[in-house]
Structures are given as structure tokens and as C-alpha cells.
Amino acid sequence: MTAEDPRWLSPGELRAWTRLEAVAELLPVALDQQLQRDASLSHYDYLVLAKLSEAPGRTLAMSQLAAATNASLPRLSHVAARLEDRGLLGRRRSPEDRRTTLATLTESGWRTVQATAPGHVAQVRRLVFDRLSAEQVDQLDQIALAVLTALDPDGRLEARCTATQEAVAPGRPHTPEGAGSQ
Amino acid sequence: MTAEDPRWLSPGELRAWTRLEAVAELLPVALDQQLQRDASLSHYDYLVLAKLSEAPGRTLAMSQLAAATNASLPRLSHVAARLEDRGLLGRRRSPEDRRTTLATLTESGWRTVQATAPGHVAQVRRLVFDRLSAEQVDQLDQIALAVLTALDPDGRLEARCTATQEAVAPGRPHTPEGAGSQ
DNA sequence: CACTCATTGTTGAAAGATCAACTATCATCG
DNA sequence: CGATGATAGTTGATCTTTCAACAATGAGTG
Predict the structure, then answer these.
(1) Which residue among A11, A20, A30 places its CB closest to the CB of B170?
(2) How far is CA B74 from CA B71, B81, B84, in A?
């Protein structure tokens, strides 16, 4: 029935796993709390707005936005409906392919991201990067990439490409320059 | 108004962060799916049963169990109620301190953990440890510990201690030896 | 002993996520 | 052109999580 003992985790692996589980459980909670308190947004809400803010024309198709935020389309659809009700984004049918819905950040949504980004980045720094050496940041990147390769074998997710960088002015992550452009 | 530019993330940090976000989003989903499919358990359900299975007498107070599983007490309470309905664990008042509730794994719960552990470990291996070198496992452990220190400054969580090891026979994580004991 | 406060846990309502339909558009092929 | 199937997105039911009360016990203090 069983093979020859399914290979258990070694003590070192087990310790790393226990800690990774704890981080995976607690980090999202900590991010949610800061954003909820300061902007009444969940971490996922923020991610949606941030990805739109980086996109050309501050606009993305729902399916692209879902991929960019690592989420299912149904989940995004519900979230987008709520964000639309709050006036932070707008949705309209694409003229070219009328199946696709284009989501665009509104002015209000843009201002919300602008206002919220510094506090969020500060939280990310406080929880993660202030604790890590430059070497560890590289190591984390490599490790996360390796795990992502298993999680997303087909390479659908944008987080696997290095291309993410291009959408962002170096050193200025979530705030493209044209702040005043309508 | 703004300070002197809240320090943004460097390109390297941003890339690592994007990937970590993706892992934190997708890894729990992947774990849930395997466990849901094979045992109708969420990852958190499994964690509750697994922690109980490692505890002396297969019993823990609810608050200890909440800490061991990195969750809030209300969350655990609801989950425990469902697991109790399914006959996987039992709850009773402690005779010593009648505020505390002691949760104990039932025989059925024990068998469920036994039957489920190999598949779960295989999934963890497939998604994480098969992709990492021994060095990277160490690095991951150190990085996760650093982040946990920020997430849990008071050290309430057991994942921060190395002590987790003691509860587990080396090389045999979720299955203490007395497998046949009725 | 009575009062107060902290600890432990449960509960119910509201918000959020998941899953399985379902609609609508497009693409392919006979 | 009509049929088939794939792609894009929404919706509603169901389940889970969260949050704010609440109850009950214990500990400390005058």
C-alpha cells in the first residue's frame, strides 16, 4: 500500500516549514490590518488598485488584472464590484473584444493609491526588508521564484517574469511620475 | 506634509516583494486544494489536528492550540466546533482551571491525521523542498525567523522557538510512534 | 469577603472567499 | 453560414473568517 515510507521532512526542513507556515498565516493579517486601519482597504484591494496604477492608461482587462494580482476571476469580480461602488475604479466593455471588461482607476482611486502607498511601503519595510540583509533579499527572491515555479508551472503569473520591473520607475514602485496628468 | 520621501523599495527589494506576495497568496491555496480533495480538510483544519496529534495526551487548551496554529481564538473556536461535529476532536472543561477548554484528538481524528499526513507532506515537498538546495532551506529558515520576529514581537508564537523540534521524532514529523496503540 | 480587573472561551452578525452555474462573445471548421 | 468549443466575465449560494459583544472563571486588593 504505502510506497517505501513517504519521505518525511528532515528536522531542518521541518523547522523552516513551520516558520514559513507561520509567516504565510501572519503576514497577510498584518498587511490587512494596517491598510484597513489607514484606508479601509484589504491588502488585496490595495493590490488591485496598485496594479492598475502601474498599468498604461491605468487600465487593464479583468483577466490580466486577475493574473497580476494572483487571484481567480470570480474573486476579482466581486472585489471590483465593491471598489466600483466606492468610486475607486470604473469598468466598461472593450470595443475590440466585447467579451473583455476593462477596469480603469478613477481619479479618486488614483489619489487613494497615492495617499496609501507610503504607509503600506513603510509597513512592508518594517515587517520584512528592515530585518533582512541585502544578501538575504537576493536569497528570498531566488527561493520565492523556485516555489512559484512549482505553484505556477505554466508561467501564467506575471510575478515569475522579471518584467515587472519595466512597469515601474526605478526606485519608485507604486507611483509613476505623471501624478498630475488627468 | 510628506516627510522627506518615504523610502521606496529598491528594484531588487521590489522584485523579491512581488514574488513573496505571490507565494503568500498561492501557497495556501495549493495546500488547501490538495487537502480538500483528499480529506475534505482545509489547511488550517489539518494544522489543528496535526498540532493536537503532536501534543502530550493529544490534548491542548484552546488558547495554546490557537497559538500553535497562529490563529485567533474565535477562528479556532469555530473551526473546532466543526471538527467536533465531524467527530475528529472532543472538547471538555479543564478540572483545574474551569475557564480553559481542553481539546483532544479522537481516535477518528488520529486516524485521519495518519492517513492524510503522507499526501500533505508530499505536496509540501513537491511545492517547496524539492525545489530548494540544503543551503536555501537554511536561508529560508533564517529569513522566515527574521520576519516572524517583526510579526510577533512579544514571542507568543511557538514557531519562533526551536522547541518545536522536541515534540517530533526526528525525521517523522506528524506521526509520533504509537501508531498502533488503540 | 466584596470589588475590580484580567484571562479564557463562545456566539451571532457582517464581510469576504470559493465554487459551480450561467451568459455572452469570439474562433474554428465543416 | 451554422455548429462546436474556447475565452471572458458575472452572479448567487454556501462556507469561512472576522469583529464586537458577552459569559464565566480566576486573581489581586482593600
Answers:
(1) A11
(2) 8, 11, 15
